[in-house]
Each structure stands twice: as structure tokens, then as C-alpha cells.
Amino acid sequence: MLAPNHAGASTDSKLLRQEAGQWLKHLRESRKLTQRELAERVNINYYTFISQIEAGKGRVPPESYHLWADALGVDRVAFVKSLLSFYDPYTYRALFAADDVAQKA
């Protein structure tokens, strides 16, 4: 069975990637790291890849989530959970919607 085609899904995905990029940029800048320094910490040869991710033109590769979390000094689980809310909001809601409701109560 194929997944349903969601109207506007690609536009929504682009906007969410841009929001994720801004969130990552904020984390990086609040730690006073340059794009080059972050690239070195996450074992990326080209710091311009950091710029692409922050602009919403790319995504943090899942296999390096732990490197990014450590480089940015944030809890790994919280980092992945936040990225998931941007990169795959349907899965995020399926996994954590009940948690979010419970925390607001």
C-alpha cells in the first residue's frame, strides 16, 4: 500500500526544514561556535554543509545525531526528539502526542 499523497506536503517539509535550520543555528550561535568549528566537531569536511542545513536545504544525517548533540552540548534524546518534530512531524506526533498532552496538564 502506498502512502497517501498529502497536498502541500513538500512545502510543509521545506518550511519545517527551515525552522529546524534556524533552531540549529540558534543552538550553534548560543554556544559561540562558528560553522567551521561545528563542522570539525561533527566530522564534516566542508563547513558549507552546516550552512546548507541551517538554511533548510539539507538535514542532519541520522547516523550523526549523537555527534551533533554532543557538539552542541545538548541531551541526545532531547536533540533527536526536537529534530524529529521538524523532519518527521507525523511520526513525532504518533510517538509523543500523549506525552505532550500529559506535560501540559
UniProtKB/TrEMBL annotation:
Superkingdom of the source species: Bacteria
Listed CDD domains: HTH_XRE
Listed Pfam families: HTH_31
Any one GO MF annotation of this record: DNA binding
Domain HTH cro/C1-type, residue spans: 24-79
UniProt xrefs under InterPro entries: Cro/C1-type_HTH, Lambda_DNA-bd_dom_sf
Protein name: Helix-turn-helix protein
